[in-house]
Write a structure and sequence with these properties.
9-stranded mixed β-sheet, 16 strands, single chain, alpha/beta
């Protein structure tokens, strides 16, 4: 049995027991809006384990995915924030927790007057495979020999491809509270790739989790009790932020950080943070004569793709970066400079990311004909490492 598998089994067993009886040591206390708790059944509130409230960053009408939904508390809170026009999906792989949240759903819907929540069985590092659907298939096709095992693997691949649990580009906001740290270390990159896959363009993650101020040594990572207790599987704080960036997300920002540690183990501090990150920098870079002005207060800043913005300067940007800079989370820091004569998208040429002077001549923004020196290179700049 691999270490990764034994950790996953330990997490499942510990949280299965925690669905039946309260275990206060599992995570740190969180203050929620009392008004949003009134409609939630008591049995859900009694066994909630989290370290933050990502629902504070949701908006009406959004489709929300909660990774590791557990008892369903965050889902039920989010359901009230997004309202009847919104939708909330909880994903968990723990049968007792799923049973609890599903059992509580009718009473919650009756209390608020609408039903916009569903709870699905799946692993957050594989949001394509519907475990309930696979379980139904296995009931009719028991695995008793290697041939049947291979047939099960084929069925799992078919289900993931043809009937994914969560479809590509279908989610407005991904939330989670104290769950990502529980995923085995080797599977965490896949988990972040799945988050990127299911988010729509312009969508965002708002993740509350436990991080450490130092890397957790291997001997602590091998301690299954500490792992299932949201300790030894924690990301080092800076590595947590890099994981969002490495998955292709941008605008990575700590929106909430507890100054006091939740636990200290062998001198390592473990605390709760909430991180927000966005999807939407995929695709080609196109020249539409746009610019942005960074308003300060810093002399200069650099974005996730290496673009430098000098305070007060008209900086030339591609159409994609223009829209990123003029939307959350950057909008308050930039002034948009639109061209006097708009370049139709279908007529836009590739933007030269390697241009020597990144500043935009004001005459160009005002509609002057481009000079030979302004002409873009032959590169189409459709490179994830570009922008």
């Amino acid at each position: 049995m691999t270490i990764a598998r034994s950790i996953e089994e330990n997490v499942r067993d510990r949280y299965a027991e925690a669905a039946r009886a309260v275990e206060p040591a599992l995570c740190c206390p969180v203050d929620y809006s009392p008004a949003l708790l009134e409609a939630i059944p008591a049995e859900v509130l009694e066994v909630d384990y989290g370290c933050g409230d990502p629902s504070k960053w949701l908006q009406s009408g959004e489709t929300v995915l909660d990774l590791g939904s557990g008892s369903g508390k965050i889902c039920f809170i989010a359901a009230q924030v997004v309202g009847e026009s919104g939708r909330v999906i909880g994903v968990d792989f723990n049968p007792p927790m799923l049973a609890l949240s599903r059992r509580a759903k009718p009473a919650f819907a009756a209390k608020v007057g609408y039903d916009n929540v569903e709870f699905l069985s799946g692993r957050i590092q594989d949001l394509a495979l519907n475990l309930d659907a696979l379980g139904s298939w296995l009931a009719a096709h028991p695995v008793a020999d290697p041939e049947a095992f291979l047939a099960m693997q084929d069925q799992a691949r078919r289900l993931s491809a043809e009937q994914p649990l969560i479809a590509n580009d279908s989610i407005d906001v991904i939330v989670s509270s104290c769950v990502l740290n529980l995923v085995p270390a080797g599977e965490k990159p896949a988990m972040f790739r799945e988050m990127h896959r299911v988010l729509r363009r312009g969508g965002r993650c708002v993740i509350s989790d436990i991080v450490s101020d130092e890397p957790v040594p291997a001997r602590l990572q091998a301690d299954q009790e500490l792992w299932s207790g949201c300790v030894s599987g924690a990301f080092e704080e800076a590595a947590f932020l890099r994981a969002f960036e490495d998955a292709g997300l941008y605008g990575v920002e700590i929106v909430e950080r507890r100054s006091e540690p939740w636990r200290v183990v062998e001198g390592i501090e473990f605390r709760s943070v909430t991180v927000r990150a966005f999807k939407g920098k995929e695709g080609p870079c196109l020249e539409r004569n746009q610019a942005v002005i960074y308003k300060g207060p810093f002399k200069s800043v650099v974005d996730d793709d290496g673009h430098s913005f000098d305070r007060g300067e008209r900086m030339a940007v591609c159409d994609k970066t223009f829209h990123i800079c003029t939307a959350p989370p950057y909008a308050a820091s930039f002034e948009a400079v639109r061209p006097g004569v708009e370049v139709p998208l279908e007529e836009a040429l590739p933007f030269d990311c390697s241009r020597r002077d990144p500043r935009r001549d004001p005459r160009q923004s005002k509609g002057a004909v481009r000079s030979a020196g302004d002409a873009p290179s032959n590169s189409d700049c459709d490179d994830p490492g570009c922008c």
